[in-house]
């Protein structure tokens, strides 16, 4: 294996409506002069491309990497909060760099976006969906908890309201002092996640104006994006996929957060079990005993699972 000196990452701004920020890394190692396929990294709602920094030293050993700030996030401009708009941004990034048969790896919102793109395009090597499951299925909740379908639908609706409200609250404007305390708390690390990565993502998403710090994309956009993905059903998209897909599912015990509705943790467990149902050789699902942000807390494990999956395609 020939070793090359890795070049520092490049920050590229793709002009357009909206303009998009992308961090590019060339591969560090190449076997027989041939790196693996390029990988496009897509973060979760309210996050930024910084979230991938724990994994990039591992992935860049074989792959060129293109980490995106989604529209309205990080240093990308605002745009319409629609699935088609986000897909268009992904298409623009792949086209701008002339990527041939890339792998799209996404977390939560980014994972759903990867699956939706894989259902529309056969010009990919594969997609990897990390915890991008959409909303729980009321039918599964009904069957597993012995509830009527109407009762289950009520619990799922409460689950959705709680999640949307929590995400919206984390993106609400705040005084500079409160933001500074939040960043310092992030630096210490929470739930086993890397503090420097959490802090860097918070700083990248912050807009300071009129004495207030506003994390992007903001609560209104967060609610709009959640609504845009309300119809997303991974089962339907998986049946339409035109490329192999790996799904990574958190199987760590789900704690009940303060203020969560009844059955919250049970519903999370039911959803994880649903995602682990076998779908075929080209659509494997793998459980990971880790926090839902497993790409940050367990980057070595997630990288190994991705590389093993790609080696078998």
Automatic annotation (TrEMBL):
InterPro entries: AB_hydrolase_1 (IPR000073), AB_hydrolase_fold (IPR029058), AB_hydrolase_sf (IPR050266)
Alphabetical list of Gene3D superfamilies matching this protein: alpha/beta hydrolase (3.40.50.1820)
Pfam families linked: Abhydrolase_1
The organism's place on the tree of life at top rank: Bacteria
SUPFAM superfamilies referenced in this protein's UniProt entry, alphabetically: alpha/beta-Hydrolases (SSF53474)
UniProt domain AB hydrolase-1: residue ranges: 37-137
Official protein name in the record: AB hydrolase-1 domain-containing protein
Lineage, uppermost ranks: Bacteria, Bacillati, Actinomycetota, Actinomycetes, Streptosporangiales
């Amino acid at each position: 294996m020939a070793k090359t000196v890795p070049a520092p990452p490049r920050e590229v701004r793709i002009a357009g409506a909206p303009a998009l920020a992308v961090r590019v890394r060339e591969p560090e190692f190449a076997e027989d002069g041939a790196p693996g396929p390029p990988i496009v990294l897509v973060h979760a709602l309210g996050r930024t491309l910084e979230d991938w920094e724990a994994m990039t030293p591992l992935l860049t050993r074989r792959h060129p990497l293109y980490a995106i700030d989604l529209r309205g996030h990080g240093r990308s401009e605002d745009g319409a909060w629609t699935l088609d708009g986000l897909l268009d941004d992904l298409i623009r990034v792949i086209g701008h760099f002339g990527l041939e048969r890339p792998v799209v790896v996404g977390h939560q919102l980014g994972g759903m976006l990867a699956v939706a793109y894989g259902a529309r395009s056969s010009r990919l090597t594969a997609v990897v969906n990390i915890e991008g499951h959409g909303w729980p299925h009321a039918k599964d909740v009904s069957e597993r908890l012995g509830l009527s379908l109407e009762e289950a639908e009520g619990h799922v609706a409460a689950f959705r309201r709680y999640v949307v409200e929590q995400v919206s609250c984390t993106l609400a404007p705040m005084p500079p002092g409160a933001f500074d305390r939040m960043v310092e708390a992030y630096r210490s690390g929470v739930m086993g996640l890397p503090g420097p990565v959490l802090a860097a993502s918070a700083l990248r998403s912050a807009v300071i104006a009129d004495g207030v710090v506003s994390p992007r994309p903001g609560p209104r956009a967060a609610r709009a994006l959640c609504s845009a993905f309300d119809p997303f059903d991974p089962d339907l998209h998986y049946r339409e996929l035109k490329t192999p897909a790996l799904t990574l599912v958190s199987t760590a015990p789900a704690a009940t957060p303060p203020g969560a509705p009844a059955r919250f943790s049970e519903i999370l467990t039911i959803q994880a079990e649903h995602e682990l149902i076998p779908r075929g050789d080209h659509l494997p699902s793998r459980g990971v005993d880790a926090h839902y942000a497993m790409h940050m807390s367990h980057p070595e494990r997630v990288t190994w699972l991705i590389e093993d999956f790609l080696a078998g395609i």
